[in-house]
Design brief:
Blueprint: H1 2-8, H2 15-55, H3 72-78, H4 81-115, H5 119-126, H6 133-143, H7 150-157, H8 172-196, H9 201-209, H10 214-242, H11 246-251, H12 263-272, H13 278-303
């Protein structure tokens, strides 16, 4: 009776009204906490993106502010064979890098989850990721050097011919992909390992009781329940793979004969080496942004990364 009286007492605020009033009082504090991240987003992402879109519609260079030229830069891009070659080279790198890295990362994460959860092992696995891209590229440039590299010395010692890992048009992209797989494998595996820890252990116990093998439990339990985490990891690694630059810049400078001239390196060359053509470089950057957004949306929908089978 007292609750009903309180709810119907004249002048008493409804629960929904009190909640909205409390939310409004908390709004200034929430905005204050969001201010640093919001400022960083506007200054370092939103404004440069909008500026890049505008530059792509001009003939600006490093030495002058150009005028509006509409879609001329995009028309030039469509007719540019070097751009399409760079795009194909990048796609080939992405396929190799993501395919190999994902398979190895899943296997490594499952082994850690099923065999050991030692912090020491996790630290060792993560160590290559702590090495910068430039240092990793220089390291493998020395290891794989045609004349003085340890790997070629070993190959020759086994009686085989030396290999030009960074100088062969057919091998340069697989070599760069392997270098970056080595560097990022541990980090990717730890992301998937975190997802594996959310899978209830009683599911595996039930599988063992039913006589299921480790391979069967991997197919029927691990992979279906790991799918949301794997989907997000694929999106992140795909975006990172399309943005490969450091390894190419240090090891090959786009060679030999544009065989490793990935799209990011070509954009850099156009903007800062070949005529400082900011307008055309910005047009290619905008095109790459659109491609990445489209691929990310398709991946997100195909992998259903926002859905969890355990829900």
């Amino acid at each position: 009776m007292s609750d009903a009286t309180t709810a119907t007492r004249p002048g008493a605020a409804a629960p929904g009204t009190r909640r909205r009033s409390r939310d409004l009082r908390d709004l200034p504090a929430a905005l204050l906490f969001l201010l640093p991240a919001g400022t960083g987003f506007v200054v370092f992402f939103l404004w440069p993106s909008l500026r890049g879109v505008w530059l792509s519609l001009t003939d600006s260079t490093a030495f002058r502010t150009g005028g509006f030229v509409g879609l001329e830069n995009y028309q030039r891009m469509v007719a540019d064979p070097v751009f399409w070659n760079a795009f194909q080279v990048t796609l080939w790198y992405v396929v190799l890098n993501i395919g190999l890295q994902t398979v190895l990362a899943v296997l490594l994460a499952v082994l850690m989850h099923r065999l050991t959860r030692s912090m020491v092992v996790r630290g060792i696995i993560l160590t290559p990721y702590l090495v910068s891209n430039v240092v990793a590229a220089m390291l493998f440039l020395m290891l794989l050097d045609y004349r003085l590299g340890f790997v070629n010395e070993l190959i020759e010692g086994l009686g085989w011919d030396r290999v030009m890992f960074f100088g062969d048009q057919a091998l340069v992209i697989p070599t760069i992909a392997l270098v970056n797989v080595w560097r990022h494998l541990g980090y990717t595996a730890l992301l998937l390992f975190a997802g594996l820890q959310t899978i209830p252990e009683n599911l595996y116990e039930a599988g063992r009781v039913d006589g299921a093998s480790e391979l069967r439990m991997f197919r029927s339990i691990t992979m279906p329940l790991l799918r949301p985490y794997l989907g997000l990891v694929l999106i992140v690694t795909m975006i990172g793979s399309f943005q490969v630059f450091d390894t190419v810049s240090v090891a090959t400078q786009g060679g030999p004969a544009n065989a490793s001239n990935v799209i990011q390196y070509y954009i850099y060359e156009v903007a800062f080496s070949r005529g400082y053509d900011f307008g055309y470089a910005s047009a290619m950057s905008v095109a790459l942004l659109v491609v990445l957004a489209a691929i990310s949306i398709v991946q997100f929908r195909l992998t259903r990364a926002n859905q969890n089978d355990m829900a």
